[in-house]
Amino acid sequence: MMNEYGVQHGPVYLEGLTWKQEDITSDEVEWKGKLQTSDGHDKFHIFYYGDLTEDDLIAWHDSIPLLVYAEHTVTGERYLLIDAAKHGYDAMLCETYPEEALHDRPLRPYLDVEGEDIFEVELTAYYNVPWDDEFGEDVDENGAYELITGERMDFDQVKRNGYDAFAIRILNRKGVWTEIVQEELA
Fold it and tell me: Which residues contact 112 (CB under 8 A, 6 or more apart)?
């Protein structure tokens, strides 16, 4: 059985910042949410660390994981959308990265092909990993699971943040959608 818990709840760190989108075309392993603050604000600037591909996707810079934030257009508050160094299956179970490299990820503003810098943001996480079947026996008596970093995390949080793929799509003020992240994380 795939990760139904993740599909139902989405990433923990996005809790309270997204409205789950019910999409009749989605399958049983997909969670979709629209970024929106508690006061209903849904327009954001995007800041990122990584390289832009020819397709306007944000990609890793060399072997340093990408990092993407949304910034509230009024308050300037920033919200983490993805840190590929700590979110997703590989970052939680398989890969570690040098701390000095992770601290040196300067953010740049994202401008779409039309020069727009204010967007609505749609997030999609894919949960194809059967966490309970594959890792349930490694959960301790307190309900925690040990990550590759040695950190112990609540197993439900692991299932929510341990997605195997993640996508970000933005909508500019002119009504044009752009895919900016399509990360395979397992």
Answer: 56, 119, 170, 172, 176, 178
